[in-house]
Amino acid sequence: MRSQVAFSYGGQCIDTAIADFDTLAVSGRGNFTTAVNSTDLASDGAKYLSSRIESKKLTVNFFLQASSLSDLSDKTGKLKKLLSVKNTEVSFADDGYRYTGTVTSLTFDDTTLHPTGTIEITLSDPYCYSAEKTITGTGTSVSLSEYDDTGFANLPAAIEFTPAEGISTFQVTSNQGKHFLLNQSVSAGKKIVIDFKSLTCTVNGATVLSSVSLNSNFADFRIDHNTKLTFNANGNYVIRFEVKKL
């Protein structure tokens, strides 16, 4: 039976890909550390200048069972190959969020045919992300209250809008000071797609990136639980996003 915390790396569930591999425990998912940049004062203490959340480590403890030395060699060789992928998706069966990291250490605690071991993964991005969620509707505005209120602000995956009537320009603004402006007319029923992951914009499938205003918040149009988006026309909208957590 597969472990309740079965470990997937690079799109492969290790507990399934390698017979008799079992994930025993995972630690570090809820941790974070902050690096503080400061300068010492002549008096006591220091003056705060800046800070940043550092990359973090996950530790995966596992058990591997083999029937012979040859079987053990085959299984450990396959494990090493699966774990050689760099900066890839990491997930666990008991966790609906995904991480991105690189295996930096694989150690076996003994040399028997039934060794336990430890896999250390460095998460260069300390945050984790939910599966993509979607909000759909019709109108001139939408509140993103479905975004988890414990989540951090994140770029949406995409905003899609199909105007009910022809428009000379398209604009979407947020109540948090972000805006996106497309200086191009769009006919009724033609879908506008703003893809914030690839930084592209299309109308009815054709690229219109050259018509996007340079003043648009293309790379930093972040949203959260308190965001309200307003469109300059009535139409159908689709908001795709992933919740970002620490």
From TrEMBL:
InterPro entries according to UniProt: Dit_BPSPP_N (IPR006520), Siphovirus-type_tail_C (IPR054738), Siphovirus-type_tail_N (IPR008841)
Siphovirus-type tail component RIFT-related domain segment(s): 42-123
Residue stretches spanning the membrane: none
Pfam family, one: Sipho_tail
Residue ranges annotated for the Siphovirus-type tail component C-terminal domain, each copy included: 151-241
Matches recorded under NCBIfam families: phi3626_gp14_N
Protein name: Putative phage tail component domain protein
Lineage: Bacteria, Bacillati, Bacillota, Bacilli, Lactobacillales
